[in-house]
Amino acid sequence: MRISRIIKVGAVGVAASLCVTAGAARVDVYPQSFEAGGWGLDAQFMDVMGSPYLIAHGLGVRVLDAKARVAFPKAGEYRVWVRTRNWADGNPGRFRVLVDGKPLVKEFGAGPRIWSWEDGGVVQISGTEATVTLEDLTGFDGRCAGIVFDSDVKGGKAPEGALKINEADVAETVKADFVVVGGGMPGTCAAVAAARRGIKVALVQDRPVLGGNASGEIRVYCAGEAKHDLIRELRGYFMNRDVNIPFCDARRMRIVQDEKNIEVRLLTRAFGVEKKADGTIAAVKALDLKSNRVIRFEAPLFCDATGDGWVGYWAGADWRMGREAKGEFDESRAPEKPDGDTLGASVMWTSADANAAVPFSAPWAEKHAQGIVAVNGEWNWEYGIHRDMIAEAEEIRDRMLLAIYGSFSLAKKRQANANKVLNFCPYLLGKRESRRIMGDWVYSQKDVTSTTPFEDAIATGSWAIDLHYDNCKKGVDFLTTCKGNTYGRYWIPYRCIYSRNVGNLFVVGRCFSCTHVGLGGPRVINTLSQLGVAAGEAAVMCKELGETPRGIYKGGHVRKLQERLGGGFPGVPEAKTAGWLIVDDESEDVEFGKGWRKMHNANGDQVGDWYHKAADKSAETVVYPLPVKESGRYALMGKVPYLWFAKPGAKTMLEISSGGRTKAFTADPAQSTGQWVKLGEFDLEPGATLSIIPAKSSGLIVADGFALVRK
Ligand SMILES: Cc1cc2nc3c(=O)[nH]c(=O)nc-3n(C[C@H](O)[C@H](O)[C@H](O)COP(=O)(O)OP(=O)(O)OC[C@H]3O[C@@H](n4cnc5c(N)ncnc54)[C@H](O)[C@@H]3O)c2cc1C
Fold first, then answer.
1. Mind listing the pLDDT tens digit for each residue in 377-387?
2. What is the predicted pLDDT for the residue at 5?
3. How far is the CA of 583 from the centre of ligand 1 (A)?
4. Residue nearest to atom 8 of ligand 1 (CA)
5. Half-sphere exposure of 519 (CA within 13 A, CB side)
6. 20 to 30 Å CA-CA from 270: which of 71, 294, 335, 483?
7. How far is CA 240 from CA 165, 214, 350, 396, 421, in A?
8. How far is the centre of ligand 1, averaged over its atoms, from the C-alpha of 224 (Å)?
């Protein structure tokens, strides 16, 4: 046995550990031990390559040094081993290691194309402390997953595998009623929904911010129906790649921090579970990336919101990845035979205009651009459809970086782009799909196309079955196309948000129980966030009733859950609008003449399944008969779906007629954004009507639902 004792030594930064055998000493310097300077701490692949690592992601600008002060048991000679990987041909990620200011003889990041320990030669440590520095030489993603100093300079062998602390060495146990792992929008919604009902929640998130793909780190726009106020409170408000998305992160973080029932652990990456004899989860174990300590999160109920279904996977939950065969769920959009394909993953990116020329050159990446010359990239910069989204995720991310650097490098050769600066290109991979955890219901294409009104519906969506294909351009493997039809509003049953074989596990977000095709519609952020809200509410009910997630369904408690979610499901009226007299554009009494088109909103927040849009002011006037039975004073409410292209300032002319009197007023379609807004108060009699008059309107003209509320 090599290790006779392990002592935590006082490295400045955090922990390095010291292993001493008879006569030899080994000092392990973890990536987390460094003051990172400009290096990022990348933990997204640690379940595959073994540990977090430091990455010099400077977008072509050499990042600031990372430094660690390391304690040694004795002065003397040590052989230095550096765990690194040369990530691309042309050695773009080179860096140096300096010990007390002296560089080691070799450069790193130019060796093998796999993670391995490279021999950095022998150094003389003169005292019992030394400063270790990582110096980036390129600004292009050099990576270091730890350094080992071995006093056995002659006989020493390269360390084996990643640097890991002893997983059994638990530094802290956090106890909660409900542990949510993964702080994307769905996970955050689950945590807040539960906490606001008074139960104690722990939210474990591996990044410094919440939001997942919706965060300022990845910058995906939140689409889909934001059915609950909580989703509107926490969501992002900007389109893909917008520079302002970090504002939404700060806002979201503040809201969550203000919840006294939530213990949020950021920069904490779950890596495994402890199970009970009955197969349920006893605790989730996680690595605190700041302190390099193991934290145990113990609770009766857990929620997997990791996107990759990690918690379910560790707990032995049934899961799938890839595409089902057409025949299995009778899905016309599935392939004849099952395969491993998924939706691809993306790195969206932007550049900005500086007021002077700024150099950028990545010649080693240019061939990987496959002829694409670009200064930014949207959602369809996507790769990995035929790769393994878990095992090959790092290669998929690197393929995207090569495509981006190469395309931008080519673009920068043009005089017109001289001032362009690559200003946003994360090292985080935006994933759309990987593992899906199986529940008692597996959501599939037919549930969307038939808009099945599930009796246990807990969420609603209307985004198209939006599947992606890598057929955008011949010879280009990193650009995709999408294809999808809309089918009106569809419903997602409660049985999709818990594991069918791990009794205390909820599953929300993109790893919920569905087929590959079934994910295609609900996979937008607001819709998936509804799953989070439902899991949070259901967790509270589990605690109150002493039930399991499945027991909420089997025990007949779903109706109660639907009511607690505010209703608005098939057979369960919406609480917010109880008693309102609603008249929708789809009602038989409302006729749309020339100039109007029946539309469907992918965000689904119109009344009913459709809304109408007028091309211009030449459209015909539309009259809504108002369902007034008793004369009296009424508030008139209007609702227009959230249309991102609706510009504030448009004026829709409305006229309300009752008892021979007509009153004209205007409304701005951009004001509603999917929520009911009050348009005014009126004295109305039976026979009253409301008209939309395009001829007197300006800008976008939208017709959807109106409601009367008795005063
Ligand atoms: C480029 C792109 C464009 C898209 N376009 C749209 C769009 O326009 N509109 C839209 O609504 N949706 C869009 N989507 C889909 C949408 O982003 C996802 O479906 C959604 O973000 C899934 O949410 P999630 O929380 O399940 O997963 P994620 O958003 O991936 O969040 C999971 C979170 O869990 C954390 N995590 C993972 N493992 C662990 C662990 N072991 N321990 C602790 N934390 C962990 C991750 O860091 C992450 O923060 C797009 C996706 C991509 C990639």
1. 999 999 999 99
2. 32
3. 37
4. 221
5. 27
6. 71
7. 38, 9, 10, 21, 19
8. 14
User: What are the tokens at 69?
Assistant: 């002060």
* Residue whose CB lies within 8 A of the most ligand 1 atoms, among 48, 180, 220, for a mutation test: 220
pLDDT in tens, 300-319: 999 999 999 999 999 999 99
Is residue 668's pLDDT more than 90?
no
Q: Which residue minimizes the CA distance to atom 28 of ligand 1? A: 212
Please say if the pLDDT value at position 324 is more than 90. Answer: yes
User: What pLDDT sits at residue 23?
Assistant: 67
Q: What is the DSSP secondary structure assignment for residue 323, as one 8-state letter? A: B
For residue 283, the Cα-to-chain-centroid distance in whole angstroms is 24
Ligand 1: distance of its center to the CA of 414 in Å? 35
Answer yes or no: is pLDDT of 620 > 70.
yes
pLDDT in tens, 155-169: 779 999 999 989 999
Q: What is the DSSP string of 110-143?
A: SS-SS-EEEEEEEEEE-SSEEEEEEEESSSEEEE
Condensed to tens digits (0 to 9), the pLDDT of residues 408-465 reads 999 999 999 999 999 999 999 999 999 999 999 999 999 999 999 999 999 999 999 9
Task: Tell me how far the alpha carbon of residue 576 lies from the centroid of ligand 1, in angstroms.
Answer: 30
232 alpha-carbon distance from chain centroid: 16
CB-based pocket (< 6 A), ligand 1: 181-187, 204-207, 212-214, 220-224, 240, 269-270, 305-308, 310, 346, 348, 379, 430-432, 509-510, 523-525, 528
Q: For 88-120, b where at least 16 C-beta lie within 10 A, e where not — what string? A: bebbbbbbbbbbeeeebeebbbbbeeebebbeb
**Residue 216 three-state SS:** coil
